TrEMBL record:
GO terms for cellular component: endosome; presynaptic membrane; synaptic vesicle membrane. The lineage of its organism: Eukaryota, Metazoa, Ecdysozoa, Arthropoda, Hexapoda. It is found in: Cytoplasmic vesicle, Secretory vesicle, Synaptic vesicle membrane; Endosome; Presynaptic cell membrane. The keyword Metal-binding does not apply. Homomultimer. Associates with the dally/ magu complex. It is a multi-pass membrane protein. Its main location: membrane. This is Calcium channel flower. Belongs to the calcium channel flower family. It comes from Bombyx mori.
Length: 191
C-alpha cells in the first residue's frame, strides 16, 4: 500500500455510521473531535514539561508526565489518525474506536486523564494537559446520553405522573411489588 493510499484511507473515513450517532448534533461531534485533537497535542507538550521534574528529583511528576504523553498519543490516534499515518495500525485502531458506542470513548478518556492528577496534583501542566483529555471524555459522555426530549413531551410526562395516568416510573413501584407503608406507633410508654 502506497503512502497516498494510506492518507486517503485515513482521511476518507466518515465517522462510523452507527444508529445511535444520528441524534447527536453535528457541532457536538466536531467539538469532541476538535477538543480531543487539540487537547492531546497540549497534553503531549505539557507531559514533556512534567518530565522535567526529573531535574528536581520529583519522581511522581515524572511518571505523571509519561502517563500524560501516552494518554495524549492514544487520544490523538483515536481522534485524528491522519496525524499518525506513519504507524501501520493506526487506521485499524481508529476505525475500531469509531464503531464503539460513545460511552466507551468517554470511559476510556476519563480513565486515561485521571491518574496524572493523583501523581502530580499541584502542577499547572497536569491540570491543563490532562484536563483537556478529561473534558473530551465529558463531551463524549454527554453525547452518549443522547438528545433531550422536547418541552411538550416532558410536560405531558410530568402531568401524567402527577395525575397517576399511564405507566409510573417512580422508583418505589419497580423495587418491591408488595411493599407496605411504614407506620409510626408512637413512643413506648413506661410505667
Amino acid at each position: 500500500m502506497s503512502l497516498t493510499d494510506k492518507i486517503s484511507m485515513l482521511m476518507s473515513r466518515p465517522g462510523g455510521d452507527n444508529a445511535q450517532k444520528d441524534d447527536v448534533p453535528t457541532w457536538m461531534r466536531y467539538a469532541g473531535r476538535g477538543l480531543g485533537t487539540v487537547g492531546s497535542f497540549i497534553a503531549i507538550f505539557f507531559g514533556l514539561f512534567n518530565c522535567l521534574g526529573i531535574l528536581t528529583l520529583d519522581v511522581p511528576c515524572l511518571i505523571a508526565g509519561i502517563w500524560q504523553m501516552l494518554a495524549g498519543f492514544i487520544v490523538i490516534v483515536c481522534e485524528a489518525p491522519c496525524c499518525c499515518f506513519f504507524i501501520d495500525y493506526v487506521g485499524t485502531l481508529s476505525q475500531k474506536m469509531e464503531t464503539r458506542p460513545y460511552w466507551n470513548k468517554a470511559a476510556m478518556y476519563l480513565g486515561l486523564a485521571v491518574p496524572p492528577f493523583f501523581l502530580c496534583f499541584f502542577s499547572f501542566s497536569t491540570w491543563l494537559g490532562s484536563g483537556l483529555i478529561f473534558a473530551t471524555g465529558i463531551i463524549y459522555g454527554m453525547m452518549a446520553l443522547g438528545k433531550k426530549a422536547s418541552i411538550e413531551d416532558m410536560r405531558s410526562s410530568a402531568a401524567n405522573l402527577e395525575a397517576g395516568v399511564g405507566p409510573t416510573t417512580a422508583p418505589r413501584a419497580t423495587l418491591v411489588t408488595n411493599e407496605q407503608p411504614v407506620s409510626f406507633t408512637g413512643t413506648p410508654v413506661t410505667k
